[in-house]
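re: ur question from yesterday

yeah so i grabbed the chain u mentioned. its 476 aa long if i counted rite. heres the sequnce exactly as i have it in my notes:
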Amino acid sequence: MPRSRCPRPALPILRWLPRYSRAWLPLDLLAGLAVGLTTVPQALAYAELAGLPLQYGLYSSFMGCFVYCILGTAKDVTLGPTAIMSLLVSSYASHEPVHAVLLAFLSGCIQLAMGLLHLGFILDFISFPVIKGFTSAASITISFNQIKNILGLQGIPRQFFLQVYETLRRIGETRAGDAVLGLTCLAALAGLRAMKSHVPRAGPAEALAVRISHLIVWISGTARNALVVLFAGLVAYSFQVMGSQPFRLTGSIPQGLPAFRPPRFSLAAPNGTVPFQSLVQDMGVGLAVVPLMGLLETIAIAKAFASQNGYRIDPNQELLALGVANVLGSFVSSYPITGSFGRTAVNAQSGVCTPAGGLVTGTVSEGAVLLVQPGSSLHFPAVEHLRDCVCSRALPASPPRSVILDCCHVSSIDYTAVLGLAELLQELRRHGLSLAFCGLKDPVLRVLLSADLEGFQHFPSREEAGEALGCSARTG
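ran it thru and got these structure tokens back, copy pasting raw so excuse formatting
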């Protein structure tokens, strides 16, 4: 049965803007301010990680916000420079701003083409363990890359193993001032984060002074990155005024916005001009890796927060939004951007309100329960399609319908599929609906039982599952 979809406006902003409530405005303004305060120090750090002049981090920070507000489908997501993307730019852009900006343009074109061709389903073939493995490896690499800055060491190579070796070999050259300030800032960040998470919310019945105190704690914890940067900046400025400087500073950053112009498709060199073909060859596999990792990071973040906050995203529309953001960003000297997990988390915690093949072989168009029967085993490329099929039929129904998943044809299941089923259970439970399994084979049942899924229930047959849900089910 083909998937039925309700007509949607061409621009996602037209879905929420006509029904915008004045009550949402303070929350959106507060969220935007919190994210903005977090973005500036992060952008400077990410530009250094990408091996580019620091102003390029700032140039990469604003275009994605405007584009995503119009084209994005997740209210929590923010686009901009990220640690993983900066690390990739460092590897494939040769530390040249011209290469980095051109890489943003070409990556955006690729992402835009994928969105127009509705290729979002490709992401279903990238398993959760692969994502976690890449993210964990990138986190280790990025974290160790910052140790040289905390210790004030210079001239450390960027290759990971050489970086580890040189950092340990030259640890005796640590600058005391940089190390003390860096470790103090880390402790302050950890303390502000813990303070925010351990202080309970103040109820409306609390005294005004108590509510104000809680608000100050919440704002301090949310904007902790900006506060720590301001503190460190004041400390460094104080030493500068007194005539000494124990810290290694970033130096002056050009003021103002860059000119709006297309990226350069050639590069002037002492011995001539480097043509477009040579620039592309220098990027190598980066032309495939950067756009793929950009959309993967954006979709993963969007799906995570959409699942957490009870709404759904359109992967193809997300591709379009990311592609347009990178293409237009390249016109203001941006290097490749993607969804930021940290700033998206700040956005969500701040209470933002707006942004801004035949797997299923049978469905009960007439019953009060939706019966879904997968035609084969459930592995990671299939589970996302299963979730979409279930939610597109169960939730828009009037009234919404609980679901029976007949697994008589499912002989095996993998880890990513289990995670997808857990998210499906949670999504249905948020709408007051149930998901019952029937016809489970012993190996599949053992895997699901060992996963200890909240709300998991299974029955030998469809009839027993239907009786347990209080309704009858039949295939259509």
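noticed a couple things. The beta strands are 79-80, 267-269, 272-274, 338-339, 369-372, 402-406, 435-438, 458-459. also The longest strand covers residues 402-406.
anyway ttyl
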